[in-house]
Every structure is written in structure tokens, then in C-alpha cells.
Description:
Blueprint (H helix, E strand, L loop, with lengths): L1 H16 L4 H24 L9 H12 L12 H37 L11 E4 L5 H12 L5 E5 L11 E4 L5 H6 L7 E4 L6 H18 L4 E6 L5 H6 L4 E4 H14 L1 H11 L7 E6 L9 H12 L2 E7 L4 E4 L11 E6 L7
Parallel strand pairs: 1-2, 1-4, 2-3, 4-5, 5-6
Antiparallel strand pairs: 7-10, 8-9, 8-10
Amino acid sequence: xxxxxxxxxxxxxxxxxxxxxxxxxxxxxxxxxxxxxxxxxxxxxxxxxxxxxxxxxxxxxxxxxxxxxxxxxxxxxxxxxxxxxxxxxxxxxxxxxxxxxxxxxxxxxxxxxxxxxxxxxxxxxxxxxxxxxxxxxxxxxxxxxxxxxxxxxxxxxxxxxxxxxxxxxxxxxxxxxxxxxxxxxxxxxxxxxxxxxxxxxxxxxxxxxxxxxxxxxxxxxxxxxxxxxxxxxxxxxxxxxxxxxxxxxxxxxxxxxxxxxxxxxxxxxxxxxxxxxxxxxxxxxxxxxxxxxxxxxxxxxxxxxxxxxxxxxxxxxxxxxxxxxxxxxxxxxxxxxxxxxxxxxxxx
Length: 348
């Protein structure tokens, strides 16, 4: 009840704020005209023995007439009443047309501003992608599979003229600008991805560092993943408290080297990083409680038999260490594991 009262108070305060606008004047004009004409109808119609016999009847008749419902249960019979009715109808139609045109103009204006990235985003637990480059669209398609919520993504960019994709939100501006980040709802976002853009590695990485510092200053809990072009600048991103740093050039070089060594290896690597529903991928999942500190051989057997997934690495998230290719007959203090599976397994 109190929530409804506060909402109504807020709405009325907004009306009062814009009381001098043309729409308010239009509504006020309609109310005054209807009230004056109602007095005319009351004077000429009520004394006559017809369907309108009281002021409450006039109010009901006003509602039916102005909304163009027209039940026909009440109607004026005198000449003055009919003339007043004509004026009420014309005033109502003109006011409604004017208000509808204003509403359409408002909706068009909002949609246009949304396309241009000029509106504030109202989201929770969303993903903010900073900068638009040649990998951005494919990244969004990948997130569509992993996150399962395609519309929960916001793009921040100062070079795009309008929203690049219809199913995401867009905020125009520099990702390193605090006010732009606030418009993108960075304080309530769960993840931020910073894409590198530009031919000059130093300036691109410098922009990434500034963006990382700005995001972290506004949200201490957000997960930040940043793309870097020069390996020598990794230390600066670490100082900016970036959670994961992706050296795209190093990754590409390794893929090329693997292909040159054995071209069949690339097929396996592509399979593991593909988001095709028919392919196997690598997932990080919480290890079942009953398998903690068990022999790696027991973990492999249990997960393969019960969940059809193959564990390839173990992790202790508290101590932040990772064991790749664990020894078969050795136990580890791990709480997470990395598995190869077609779908992300849900352990009971």
C-alpha cells in the first residue's frame, strides 16, 4: 500500500514539475470545457423528463461519450444539450489526437536515443563489453551459448554511431569515463570484458589499463577480463586488479605453432573452444563433496561413469593453484575440476 502511495506521489510530482507543458495545458483545457458544458447540460437536461436526471448521470454520460463507448442508455434531448454534446465530442477527439501524437513522439524519441546509446541502462548482473572491434560480434555469439541470456549484455563504445546489434544494449562514450560506466550500470554488473582496439599496441593497452582502473574503482566485486596486445604491459593490468588477462597475439602464435607441428592438433583445439552444441568443450565445475581429497583415479572413474565427462585438471580456489594432468594414483586438496564434456555437467 505504501509503495503504491510513493509511486503515485512521484507521478504527481512529475506532473506538477511539467504543469506548464503543452500537454498539461491541453488536459486542463479539456477539463474546463467539459465542466462548463456539463453545467449547460445540467441546466437544460435535468429539468426535462429524459434519461439524464442527475449530476451523477452526467458524469457517467461524460465517461461513455469521451471514451467513444456510446452505450446509448443516456443522451440529451434539448437543443442546448445536443450542442454541448457536440462540443464535448469535438474537444475530446482533438485532445485525444494531440495526446496520442505526443505519446508517439515520446516513444520514437526514446527508441532513437536507445539506438544512439544515449540512455542509461537499467540492469542487474549483466555483462559489460568495452570497445567494439572485429571480434566483438563473435564474442557476443559465444556468450549467448555460455551465459544463456543474450539480452543481458551492454556494449560501451565511443566510435559506433548506433547500436550494433538489436538484442543488446548500447551506451555511447569512452569506457574509461566514469559517467559512461555508470550509465552502463557497471556498479551492478557481474562481468566486464575489455577488448583491445587500435593499431598502436601501447596506446591500445594504455586505454585498457585506464578502463580497468575506472571499472575497479566503481565495482570491487566485478570480474574483469581484459585483452592485451603487448605482453610487456601485463604487469600494468595486474596492478589494475584485472582478474584474467588475455594475450591474444601469444594465443594465436601458439595455435599457429601447434598447427605447424601437427595439423591434426588444431582440429582438437578448435573442438574444445567451439560453442557448437554438438562439440565437446572444457568446463570448470565444482567438485562433488564426496570426491574431495579422493584419488584422481577415483575422480576420473566416478565422473566418467556417472556424468560422462573427463576431468583433465584440478584446482584449489582458496590457494589459487592448478594441477594439470594429475597423477593417477594421487589425491589432491581440490574443490574445482576442469572437465571435457558436451554439456556442462550438473553434479548432484
